[in-house]
């Protein structure tokens, strides 16, 4: 009788050991599969994120450049040239009619015309409280470039309107095409581009200038803050440019960590991606994806499908 009892105990021990080995094998296999699955999911997400960022970069470049050809057409119209050569009530009226037509047809914020000294002679917003007429914008780089015959696109906060805008200038030449006598400008709203392109994702998206000033973002509190911490000299340089108002430009608290993440003041970790925008040297689109949220998204389908299987084994 005792022999049978002893054999039963040994058999139970053997079965227990085999069960433990089976459990350890299933657990180890499950963990290896999980980490392999998570790594593949992260790589896939990273590839998709870069693809979306590339698409967004191309779309943003297109939207920011769509008024370059119209302003060239505007600058070449006879009424625009004539008012700069012969300024009187009749020529001002005719030029304003042209500006009104372009502003209404293009759906932009304002179209205006500056003389060779940067003084605004006429504007489509002449009847509004924030009229540009009589204002001098000779300090703007877009004016200094255009008066030298160079067209460019300038992104800035309006000094009169206090609204973010895309400024598209073009030189106006005299009748003989020999010299520049003024600058025609189309100003489009940056809010429109922001609403079209930056509001369709849960990730943090930012469009920053070379100094790190956040010009466009899908997070309202981040606008006109500094993505990275800057010293006083750099902030003084930003102030002197008058491109983004009078400040202050607060630091967002984001910083790069040794393990290649970006962290905020609460030590939340983010995956960082950035891409330069064509035709806008130094400007970048930045994407920040919360690491913990992404890890949970990756883990959830695995746990839902594989958890019961491993538990059953």
Descriptive tags:
313 residues; alpha+beta; six-stranded antiparallel β-sheet; five-stranded antiparallel β-sheet; 11 strands; elongated
Describe the structure.
- With 313 residues, the chain is of the alpha+beta class.
- 46% of the residues lie in helices and 20% in strands.
- It has eight helices and eleven strands.
- The chain has helices spanning 2-65, 68-75, 78-85, 89-106, 141-146, 190-197, 232-241, 291-312, and strands at 110-115, 120-123, 154-157, 164-173, 180-189, 204-208, 214-217, 255-256, 262-263, 269-276, 284-290.
- The protein has a six-stranded antiparallel beta sheet with strand order 7-6-11-10-9-8. Strands 2-1-5-4-3 form a five-stranded antiparallel beta sheet.
- A hairpin with a 6-residue loop joins strand 4 and strand 5.
- Helix 1 (2-65) runs antiparallel to helix 8 (291-312) and helix 3 runs antiparallel to helix 4.
- The chain is elongated.
- The two termini are 35 Å apart.
- The model has no long low-confidence stretch (mean pLDDT 86).
